[in-house]
Design brief:
Helices cover 36% and strands 24% of the residues. By secondary structure, it is of the alpha/beta class. The protein folds into 2 domains: 152 residues, Ribonuclease Z/Hydroxyacylglutathione hydrolase-like (Metallo-beta-lactamase, Chain A), CATH 3.60.15; 123 residues, no CATH class. The strands form 2 sheets. The chain has a 7-stranded mixed β-sheet. Strand 4, helix 2 and strand 5 form a beta-alpha-beta unit. Helix 6 packs antiparallel against helix 7 and helix 7 crosses helix 9.
Length: 283
């Protein structure tokens, strides 16, 4: 059984809607978050998360705002964020995704609403007195993962490859550590945003994102340097503490797994095992 299926069966959903800033809101379903924006001409929603979550949100929006849902935007291709898109599509929403996310969902026959609109690098959706700027920053997590800036509230929304207040997920399954660093640098190089909302964990700000980038760079450098000294995975997990980040949620549980993820990337993608300058681990 797939990991997300196991989680979905084991973890009962708890739904919540909270105002983030101005006309931008965060929707929570269990450990997952998405964002929606209410405008004078309708609503833009993001990841449906699950069919049940999408149905809950659709009903809540109808009761609270009495405005049509005009757009559904997928953050990326992963099923644990994109299932349930048909709930909004059948209600008349136009579905938007990056071309790589749309391609992956089509090729894998993911049972959710397909994209009506795709884009390559940037797309701005305007609705009423507001807009959302979508940008692709390259490979980072999954396929076709994009940033979303909601204006004029100036709220930045990124799913999975930036997480504030918590460690990156376990052994970085589906992540590209090089791309995570590069894409996060790209986010920080953009004009300032006032609020950051991730697909998991906490709401934060630009400084929180900068601190997250510091962690990614320290993690990568620590694993790389240990391997260059001939350390095995177990030795690296034992010696690399990164204690300056011990305030992050799941630090104790997931640091060894984060190290494993970077170690495996350097072995499988960067081919450290083929390099003559890298000593073979003693173990």
């Amino acid at each position: 059984m797939l990991a997300w299926s196991c989680w979905a069966k084991a973890e009962p959903q708890k739904y919540a809607i909270e105002n983030v800033k101005d006309n931008v809101y965060r929707f929570t379903a269990g450990h997952y978050h998405s964002v929606f924006m209410v405008t004078s001409d309708g609503i833009i929603v993001t990841d449906p998360i699950t069919p049940a979550a999408a149905q809950y949100l659709k009903q809540a929006l109808a009761q609270r705002f009495q405005k049509p849902i005009k757009y559904l935007v997928y953050s990326h291709n992963h099923a644990d964020h994109t299932l349930g898109g048909e709930v909004f599509a059948q209600a008349g929403a136009t579905v938007v995704a990056h071309e790589l996310a749309a391609e992956d969902m089509a090729w894998t026959k993911l049972p959710t609403a397909p994209a009506d609109i795709t884009f390559t690098q940037e797309l701005t959706l305007k609705l009423g007195d507001s807009s959302v700027e979508l940008q692709y920053h390259g490979v980072n997590n999954g396929r076709g993962s994009v940033s979303m800036r909601f204006l004029p509230a100036n709220v930045m929304h990124v799913v999975d490859w930036i997480v504030v207040g918590r460690m990156p997920y376990k052994n970085l399954m589906g992540y590209d550590i090089h791309g995570m660093i590069r894409s996060t640098e790209a986010i920080l190089a953009l004009p300032d945003f006032e609020v950051f909302v991730g697909g998991h964990a906490d709401i934060g700000n630009k400084q929180d994102v900068a601190s997250y980038l510091d962690y990614l760079k320290a993690l990568y450098a620590g694993v790389r340097d240990g391997m260059l000294q001939g350390q095995s995975l177990a030795q690296t997990q034992s010696s690399l503490t990164l204690s300056e980040f011990d305030h992050l949620k799941m630090y104790r549980q997931w640091l060894p797994l984060n190290i494993e993820g970077v170690y495996n990337t350097l072995m499988n993608t960067s081919y450290f095992g083929f390099r003559t300058d890298v000593p073979e681990p003693a173990e």
